[in-house]
Structures are given as structure tokens and as C-alpha cells.
Amino acid sequence: MAEPKKLFIKTYGCQMNVYDSERMAEAMGGAGYVETQTPDDADMILLNTCHIREKAAEKVYSELGRFRELKDAKPDLKIGVAGCVAQAEGEEIMRRQPLVDLVVGPQSYHRLPQMEAKVRDGAKALDTDFPLDDKFDTLRKRAKAKRGPTAFLTVQEGCDKFCAFCVVPYTRGAEVSRPADRIIEEARELVDRGVREITLLGQNVNAYHGAGPDGDMTLAGLIWELDKIDGLARIRFTTSHPNDMADDLIEAHGTCAKLMPYLHLPVQSGSDKILKRMNRSHTAESYLRLIERIREARPDILMSGDFIVGFPEETEEDFQATMDLIEEVNYGYAYSFKYSTRPGTPAAERPQVDEEVKSDRLQRLQALITRQQRAAQEAMVGRSVNVLFEKPGRLPGQMVGKSDYLHAVHVTDASIQPGDILPVKIIDSGTNSLSGEVLRRAAE
Ligand code: 5AD
Ligand code: SF4
């Protein structure tokens, strides 16, 4: 039998790319490839890219440049660019970096094996279509091998919101939801392979409205269907838009025991003037009232958010409004970014904020968020939380897992297996993780 060819995939950006990279590896498995963890012995390298900020896109080109030596040493090596940079820049990538043999947009991964055959014959291959068929349908023949206790599952792609700063509606296209039965089947398969926690993914996941047996299903409807799967212990979802936080979803946070008490709900800014210019269609006040309702349903929920500082025309006063909102919400986690001009988006045309001002605001905002994150983590000391253990830690006998609130937790106990969910008494809070001891073993 011929030696299998080796595929190295490097993934940038969001969790949806992580999921897509797994699907690409499976598709290429059908074309005789096995994955390798290093580009050095690869026959094909795929960069699964992110276009959300300028730096992310530029990283791709500098990474590609580094493959020149590898390609000189091994002329048969094929190099491909996938993901959102591929979608946004298409053929331009091959012009700018002639090392690239293949460019594939996020909606065309099921066509990778045919594209690979084409590049093996010495041609270049480009596919950035938005086909009507569901790529995941074609990619469904998943390997049945056992896998780790947590998994991502994409249920929705694309976005119709057109926030004025964001490239996603252009790179990922319009909102499309996968039919509920396919998702449920995929979730069952994952559970059969050892998965205990599933994170439902979508650029606008709470706008999910996939076909169900009685018409379209909401995200809450889908969560309740997944709740019925024996062996599946935890459900999460990300990323949500405040305007799609429907009543049934808020209620599920209070009533569905498998739905974890953690919600990533980006607001981007606390200034109504900026929110309006961002085309967010909500105000700071409506966001705060929404969080109040969510906390009524699930008082211990840990809130997470995304913030952009230095959006065009953001004044110090606007920035202060964002700081005030953060103080009021009290986040458990948050991600913050300097506004990055994306050509083709409406905000790119507006008067820009100086780079130094952006850096200064980012620093102040991150200091506040770090304080809140630490406080949320430290508040866990003395409590008992359920931990889903995932893998061994660095010390002998140590296991690492995640609490319901998504905090990393270390426990030293040689009897714990990956996939165990155990109550842990939290004893200490470190920089990025908690440590504790198991209260009692679950029934075997
Ligand atoms: N500049 C900076 N941050 C951005 N994001 C999206 N577009 C931009 C941009 N042009 C951030 C938003 C979004 C997260 C995924 O990335 O906060 O929620
Ligand atoms: Fe981008 Fe999210 Fe706004 Fe959609 S809702 S345009 S993905 S920031």
C-alpha cells in the first residue's frame, strides 16, 4: 500500500475555523491524507485563515513566505489557503504569493479532494463560490475514531447584521442554518465517540432557525432536542447577538440543566452614538435590561463580551460610556480589540481615531476587564463546582478540566479519567486557572 500523504493544517481565528479544519482533515482523509503536526514533513499545507482584523490577514502572508524553503527542498509540496482571507482575496493571494497552489473559500471545503487532484497535476485551483448545497452534508462521513470529551458543532453560518466594522457578512455570506435533524445526528455520533460537551457554533448562533419536523426550529428548540441525548452532559453556544436573544432562549438558561451558565454576548461599545454608527440596532440601555432578564432566569450566569475601542469618531466620552457599561455588567470574561480598518466596510470611510489613542484606551479597558475576570475567578474559591476533565496537566497525576463557568481547573488525582465530570471544591485561584480537590467520586 502507498504511504499516506501528510497534511498540515494551521488554524487561525475563531472556533468555527477550528471546526472547519477538522472537517477539511476528514475530507482529505478520503483523498489518502493523514494529519501531521508539523509543516516540515507535510505533502500539503493548508492555512485556515481569518480576515476579521488587518493583523490577522497580514499574518497569513508572512507565514506563507516562511514556507519558501520547505517548497524549495520539496518541490512536490502543495500549499493552500482556506478560510476568510481566501474568500475575501481569492486569486489575489496567488498573485501576491506565487507559492500558493490552492485557494478555497469556507463554503467549498467539500470540493477539496477534487482541488487536490488538480494541483497534483501541476495546475492551480481556486474555489470561492457560495454553493447552494450544504458543505457539511457532503462532509458528513466523519471518522468514527474516539475523540476528546469536548467538541464544536457548527449549526449556523454567515451573518445578515452588517455591523459597520465587520467583514463577516462578506466573507461568510448570508445567514444559513443547518437542518435540525442533521445536527442532532451529528451530535449523537459525537457522543458515541466519547464527547460529553458540545458547543454549538455560528457567527450569529442565536439567530438559528433551521428546518425542524414542525417548521423552523429556534436555537432553544434545538437545545431542548439535544438535551434528550443520553451521555451528552453539557451544551454551550457561541457567538450571539443581543437582538436575537429570544424569550425561549433566556428561559432555557433557567430551566435546561445541560445548558451551561456562561453566555458570550458581545456589545462592542457602551455609547449609543457609536452603537448607532456601528449599525448595531440596540442601545446600551436595552443591552443592560437584556442582561438583567438573563440574570433573572439564571442568577449565577457568567457573562462574556467583545469590545472594540477607537471605532471611527469615538470620543473620550464615548469610551467612558463603554467603561461604565463594563462596570455595570461585571464580566467574567471579555475580549477587546483596537478598531481595525477593513476595506469595503462602511466604517472604513469614516474619520479614524489616532493609533496612540486607540492603544491607550485598549490598555485602560483591558485593565478593568482583567480586574473583573480575576474577581470572578477568585469568587470561585471555597465553592464546589462541577468539572469536566479533559486531559492530563503538566504535573504528575494532575488533570485539567473546565468548570460549568468555563474556568480552567487543575486537580491532582491519578484516578480521574478524561471525560469524568466530578464535583470539585475550589481551593486556590492562580493567574489563569483554579485548583481544587474532588469532593467525591461519581457513581461508576
Ligand atoms: N476591528 C476590530 N475588531 C473587530 N471585530 C470585528 N471586526 C472588527 C474590526 N474591524 C471584533 C468584534 C467581534 C469580534 C469577533 O471581533 O468585537 O465581536
Ligand atoms: Fe460581524 Fe457579528 Fe456584527 Fe455579524 S453580528 S456583522 S458577525 S460583528
TrEMBL record:
- Please list the cofactors this protein needs: [4Fe-4S] cluster
UniProt GO molecular function: 4 iron, 4 sulfur cluster binding; metal ion binding; tRNA-2-methylthio-N(6)-dimethylallyladenosine(37) synthase activity
Can you tell me which residues bind [4Fe-4S] cluster 2?
C159, C163, C166
State the InterPro entries in the record: Elp3/MiaA/NifB-like_rSAM (IPR006638), Methylthiotransferase (IPR005839), Methylthiotransferase_CS (IPR020612), Methylthiotransferase_N (IPR013848), Methylthiotransferase_N_sf (IPR038135), MiaB_methiolase (IPR006463), rSAM (IPR007197), rSAM_horseshoe (IPR023404)
Identify the SUPFAM superfamilies for this entry. Answer: Radical SAM enzymes
Pfam families recorded: Radical_SAM, TRAM, UPF0004
Q: Where is the MTTase N-terminal domain?
A: 5-121
Q: Where is the Radical SAM core domain?
A: 145-375
Which locations, inside or outside the cell, does it occupy? Answer: Cytoplasm
Respond yes or no to whether keyword Flavoprotein is given for this record: no
Q: What class of enzyme is it?
A: transferase
Cofactor note (record):
Binds 2 [4Fe-4S] clusters. One cluster is coordinated with 3 cysteines and an exchangeable S-adenosyl-L-methionine.
| Keyword Cell membrane in annotation | no
Q: Which Gene3D superfamilies match?
A: Methylthiotransferase, N-terminal domain (3.40.50.12160), tm_1862 like domain (3.80.30.20)
Database matches in CDD domains = Radical_SAM
Q: Which residues form the TRAM domain?
A: 378-440
GO CC term (a single one): cytosol
Role:
Catalyzes the methylthiolation of N6-(dimethylallyl)adenosine (i(6)A), leading to the formation of 2-methylthio-N6-(dimethylallyl)adenosine (ms(2)i(6)A) at position 37 in tRNAs that read codons beginning with uridine.
- Under what name is this protein listed? tRNA-2-methylthio-N(6)-dimethylallyladenosine synthase
Give the gene that encodes this protein.
miaB
